[in-house]
Amino acid sequence: MQRHWWQEAVVYQVYPRSFQDSNGDGIGDLQGIIQHLDYIKNLGATVIWLNPIYASPNDDNGYDISDYRKIMTDFGTMEDFDQLLTLAHEKGLKIMMDLVVNHTSDEHHWFMESRKSKKNKYRDYYFWRDSKNGNPPNNWKSNFSGSAWQFDETTGQYYLHLFSKKQPDLNWDNSLVRQEVFDLMKFWLDKGVDGFRMDVINLISKKQGLPDDPNASKTAVEDAMSWVANGPKVHDYLQEMNQKVLSKYNVITVGETPSASTQDAIKYTGFDRHELEMVFQFEHMGLDWSQSGLGKWSTNKVSLIELKGVMSRWQTALNGKAWNSLYWNNHDQPRIVSRFGNDSSKYRVLSAKMLGLLLHFMQGTPYIYQGEEIGMTNVHFDNIADYKDLETLNAYHEIVEDKKQISAQQMMAYIHHSSRDNARTPMQWDATKNAGFTDGNPWIKVNPAYKQINVSEALNDPNSIYYFYKKMNELRSQYDVIVYGNYSLLDPKDNEAFAYERQLDQQHLFIVTNFTSHVIKRNYKVYNDQKSRLLLSNYDDDLKRDLRPYEAKVYYYEE
Ligand code: NOJ
């Protein structure tokens, strides 16, 4: 297998709005990130992924971009960005930008021009269609509730928006659009950024003729993405992007690809395909979704057997052909310790370490989302007005108020479990007011758990989750097998323990985790092997066959 720096990398994701406010306006900013570069460096991360920091009216917290070459005023200036990039590079940290080019903001000048008249030179940058018998042009749904089409008075046509109506979809079939995107990518790469995380990049090529989705009435919004994802020309466009831009720089790329199968991922990231380096797949994130049509809105618990099935399928299908990203958390997902682990005071630390270990010893590039390294938990606001995320608010409005499908109380339980705002409450730095995030009024309330769960506590406790993650990152740089080894699952039907092996030449790893809050007894071959030694564990000692609540261990041996 060819080796590349981005395979050995550890990515730390910063959601700038919620990371650190430096000027008291209640919103995180670039100077705030600068204050914590050493914190990220000391954790052992090597790349920082910044969620969008471009000019934006913030309908979707920066995923609606009005100028790709300007910095959002809330976050600072281009000078602040240049300073951040220089300082990060001086410390050996790379910067990966978010590239949001499936859609722009409706306040981007291309769209403002486009909507003016049918003859405008930017008209064809977007999808404009006539109504069909008084209805929208087709039955596609927006990811953020309602139809994916918005009627526009000026020209009497509808435009397509797979996300909010302030996020019109760009028409990638227009070569001028592609050229604009390639130019703006070069603008950032020439500044010295080290790569891109590409927002919903597998939605950029729409099916010819924009046909109705035959399953639209049956599916939840998220499932409806499968009809619009992985369109007919997506690989042509990514290969063109690679040839014209990416191949000229030595960068990291990761495409966000809802509804991508392992076969799709091999096409996007195959070592010989010249498209992307890796994708964010969603299968493991959909395992606790509702079976009754409400998609992500549920309080279901994940089934360990299903989780093993999905993770292992991705591990083995891509091995030797393409490359995995490894993630539990990001700005769209609830906190993993509350979701797959146990966030009670008794088990939070143990289960957070267990989940971290389970993921980081798989094959792929690991992503750590801000706060994951201190075991931040989901937030439970009682009042819907305390939520800021438009997906959450639109869903509440549609499911509870419009369609009256479930009670407000039930929906709040789902929101507590699944809302994106679980990830977006401010970073918890210390136990002072607003968790040390801001001197002002935070744009979203701080999770009250900050008094116990914060960076300052973690740094003072040698047994903290933070130091456990740091240790994992150190081991990654010492053992090639962690990065490059192949993967095999043990006991797929065991619904309490998740165990797997990794192997690279003579190097072997054996990983076992107890997914329950009770002691389980398991006997593994490795226990009888004189040569094996414990590399990492979330307990102080090793009882071998007795696996204590959420116990997680890695053994190493050579053979
Ligand atoms: C995926 C991003 O991660 C999410 O936060 C955003 O709302 C949508 N894409 C639309 O850009």
From TrEMBL:
Pfam families: Alpha-amylase. Belongs to the glycosyl hydrolase 13 family. One of its GO terms (molecular function) is alpha-amylase activity. It comes from the Bacteria. Residues 13-424 form the Glycosyl hydrolase family 13 catalytic domain. One of its GO terms (biological process) is oligosaccharide catabolic process. Keywords: Glycosidase, Hydrolase. InterPro entries: GH, GH13_cat_dom, Glyco_hydro_b, O16G_dom_2. This is Oligo-1,6-glucosidase. It comes from Pediococcus cellicola.
